Amino acid sequence: MTEKSLNTFKGTLVQERQLKEVIAKHHDQPGGLMPILQEAQGIYGYLPIEVQTMIAEGLNISLSEVYGVATFYSQFSLTPKGEHRISVCLGTACYVKGSDKILEAVENKLGIKSGECTPDGMFSIDSCRCVGACGLAPVMMIDDDVYGKLTPDQVGKIIDSYVNKKGGKKE
Amino acid sequence: MTIEELNKIKKSREDLVKVRKIIAEEGEKLAKKTGYRKQVLVCGGTGCTSSGSQKVLEALDSELKKQGLDKEILVVRTGCFGLCSLGPIMIVYPEGAFYAQATPEGVIRVVDEHLKNGKICKDLLYQETVHEDGSIISLYETNFYKKQKRVALRNCGVIDPENIEEYIATDGYQALYKVLNEMKPDDVIKEILDSGIRGRGGAGFPTGKKWQFAKASQGDVKYVCCNADEGDPGAFMDRSILEGDPHAVLEAMAIAGYTIGAHQGYIYVRAEYPVAVNRLKIAIDQAREYGLLGKDIFGKGFDFDIEIRLGAGAFVCGEETALMTSIEGHRGEPRPRPPFPAVKGLFGKPTVLNNVETLANIAQIIRKGAAWYSSMGTETSKGTKVFALGGKITNVGLVEIPMGTTLREIVEEIGGGIPNGKKFKAAQTGGPSGGCIPACHIDTPIDYEHLTALGSMMGSGGLIIMDEDTCMVDISKFYLNFTVDESCGKCTPCRIGTRRLLQFLEKITSGNGELEDLDKIEELANHMKNSSLCALGQSAPNPVLSTISYFRDEYIAHIVDKKCPAGVCKDLLRYEIDASKCRGCTLCARNCPVGAISGTVKNPHVIDTDKCIKCGLCVKNCKFGAVVKK
Prior knowledge:
The complex is a heterodimer of chains A (about 170) and B (about 625). Chain A is an alpha+beta fold. Chain A folds into two domains: about 10-70; about 85-165, Glutaredoxin, CATH 3.40.30. Chain A contains seven helices and four strands. Chain A has helices at about 15-25, 35-45, 50-60, 65-70, 90-95, 100-110, 155-165; strands spanning about 85-90, 125-130, 140, 145. Chain A is elongated and about 50 Å long. By secondary structure, chain B is α/β, with parallel strands linked by helices. Chain B folds into five domains: about 10-140, Glutaredoxin (3-Layer(aba) Sandwich); about 165-375, Rossmann fold; about 385-465, Ubiquitin-like (UB roll) (Roll), CATH 3.10.20.600; about 470-560, NADH-ubiquinone oxidoreductase 51kDa subunit, iron-sulphur binding domain (de novo design (two linked rop proteins), Up-down Bundle); about 575-630, Alpha-Beta Plaits (2-Layer Sandwich), CATH 3.30.70.20. In chain B, the strands form five sheets. A five-stranded mixed sheet of chain B has the order 7-8-6-5-9. Chain B has a five-stranded mixed sheet with strand order 11-10-14-12-13. In chain B, strands 2-1-3-4 form a four-stranded mixed sheet. Chain B is globular and about 85 Å long. The interface of A and B includes residues 30 and 136 of A.
């Protein structure tokens, strides 16, 4: 593993209890691993190896099996995400309308690349495949808000409006 | 739930929903009967929600309360109307007045002038619905809707998807009753076979055959799966159906369950569709509450229930065997076929897997009969098809047309043509598995066979329109980037083949291509088609092959002349300043981020091509159009 040391696991006992409840809920359900991983990511924000180990032990399956599933799907992240999650749609409709330039503008603004998180943990950038808002192409999402019909020069201002906002995730 | 109870609910709400389908005097008479003078429909689909329809709804609710109109005017939050680029969309019945790009401020005016005093705010309407003489036409008479035939989308934008009684009011769950009450499984299969409906997910396998095979398979436990893992970028018809008419899918799954002998269904839906997932959950809960899912449905001794499983962002899970592997909780890798899912599917049991749009047609086929359905469409492709129209087209949105409609009708009439006076260049169908249809084939009727003959495919229904500014080599590179990312890695032809194909294209777009690369691409593509495990790898070369066959000159321009005719591929671009147009205003030099432009005031400037990073800022800043891309 080459994860940076700043990503040390900081799970709390409360989170661990929640995770155990989730594991117990899906324990006997056929194909329960996926819903467990999804809910675990909801609890911790990402799926560090410590969490995967707990899931593997809870389900009595090997860690490699859990890791295999966690790394297969793009929704699962093994590294923490920013407080505000930016995703730029690179689906066809958006791409044809120049969403690659939107992504470039976001990357330039924050000084990080897609898939990375700013050092202060405020923002992370991802590209995504089609949020289904093709009528508004090109589109980017910050947390649960969708911004459509974008031009690259609007990006900076939109990101600025999040700098002082706390907590991207809706409860 | 008994049929009498179902009919009672239907009757109590029928007129209310009917008002939304008939316009003018007749609608007005009917509206009086319903107790609501007017109804306001606001789109709550993902597209309009992103444009702010929630705020419009809130403003509407509070303003109606304030004016004391909330008892006589009904507000309905519906699914997608289809014209997403005009969102948020709001329609007032019985007039059928179509307000486009509604805002909270506009809504306050509409409440005051239109809903209270009966004067339509014509300046806020979608312009195409207002005639020069001031008369208005309804949404259904616009060019966008006129040629459409809404079957799978019949309730989208009409009913409230979060209220099961609205679905029941439009004959909902009548087909399920009919099947349980008077049809044997073989009768159902015959009806579906006779209708000629084929799978709308992409491959076009006859749905009746699928059901027939699954029924014939021996086994005490069987499953019905719904594929709602709509992964093609640019395609959103399944999402719109789930958001606008979720019960149509549930009813069809129950019918499929009865037919093949299954009691459990799974809907595998993308986690990226939160609105759709939420509406599905509500729909399933309501159906259980009304006894339309669960034990002993309609007292006929048939049990059926449905569970939702969320995808996690893997395109390959749209492939049927990969989808089932994923529901089982594993890496979503495809399995070799045979055995086919109808024999050995989910958890090793016989399984029927249908796409959302396919299922949305089933109840209507049962109710109206196979002959009705097969009267639409062409010889081999029956019924209608929903397309997500996107890219460089005026009316971006969702359209449903009878099979056999030509591409020209879709682009020029329904789609309203190409914006900004540009020329139509190609239409891409089938997403990363499909191909491009060039302008010379614009009169091709759209059905399974014609699209395949042109080297594309029906796919799930993404239809991306491209104009002269789109580089076809770049677009194939885009699709291959996608398939490289999404190849699951299980089989070699796909895992390595997609990457090699991408490398060829990168070589060409960077100006290092050689003519023999084209032959190598074709050879490699054929190997991939023949030897990949699943449809992802088998069809991944389609975007490249179809563009090479129709736009070979563009590839040759990249390879031989080292030029990108559309001016997209950065490495082949040169920015130059036309000395005759340059006034020497220095704006470009001052804005150039790398200092590549030199020149003195009032004298023509020059770009140093070695320093230029081709960002295009100079083009944007020049007021005289003197900077040209070559």
